[in-house]
Amino acid sequence: MGPGHRVTKRVRAEIVVASTIPQSQPVMPSQEFVQGVSKFEIDLNLPHVRRCVNNIMGGRYHDMRHWMYDHYLDYPSFEEALKHSYPGICPDDWAWLCHNIYNSASFQTQSTKNKANRAKLPYVHCGGSRPFVNYLEDDMVDGEIELFRVTHFSKTKGWVNEVAHLNHDQMVEIQQQQQIDPQEAKPLTQREICIEVLGKKTCYFQGLGNRPRPTSNHGVDTSEADRLHGIMSSQQSRLDSQDVELQEQKKTIDQLESRLSQFEGMMQQFFSSQGSAFRFTDSATQGLLISMMSLEYLELVSILNWSSLDLFGYCWCMSDL
């Protein structure tokens, strides 16, 4: 087992702890943590659950690597950084990270590209670490336009820059214009106004955080796909159940037909042996007929829901054959 594998396992463990314990509370004892986690049932076979877990774990892993890289950059040289491992990471694992990741040519190339891309951003938000979607879910803001204002405006420092200020004013103007002159048959929602002003990318709405995500002409709405998958699974289960019931019914019908055929054969044999002297109305004959019937045929009559009158009517018809 190489040091890189140990780093991955350790980072994953720290990710789990960091993603499940609120930042405002002290770290709970491990035993209590295990007991708390055991109360939840996470079925990773469900697509939306697996996607959510992967996103959370990926985000925590991204944060952990960023923190360790910031620690790496705190030192003036590679040699100095190598001597001071990140807190909680053993020296061997830290050395592996420094040599194979942070000092590698591919990592340095990607880092340079990322810096150039970040420099192209017109502004950055000031919403802190709280996910943007929490503002909407907790009713802290009234729609996406106010969400943009809350995450790009500070009471003490003002707007993050003039571009963000102008974008917000433009969105408010469109919203107010719709209220004053509602000529549109279907006015734009706040989210649609944000998209019109801020634009959107294939993976997220610009200015509204990583969630919610837009649908694409080249992709499928995952929530709708999950819903349809659930409906298809339910219908397939129902069809399978009905197929089993049909097989059981066919088996029962085959058994009834076999028993009825045996019953008819027995009746024909009985009436043939009696000849012309047989009188079905004779009470003694009726008693003899009933006594000769086995429990199996009485069960057949019960299954067919015949009354005693039906039985004797059937026998009367058989006597004319």
UniProtKB/TrEMBL annotation:
<protein>
    <submittedName>
        <fullName>Uncharacterized protein</fullName>
    </submittedName>
</protein>
<feature type="coiled-coil region">
    <location>
        <begin position="239"/>
        <end position="266"/>
    </location>
</feature>
<dbReference type="InterPro" id="IPR004252">
    <property type="entry name" value="Probable_transposase_24"/>
</dbReference>
<dbReference type="Pfam" id="PF03004">
    <property type="entry name" value="Transposase_24"/>
</dbReference>
<keyword id="KW-0175">Coiled coil</keyword>
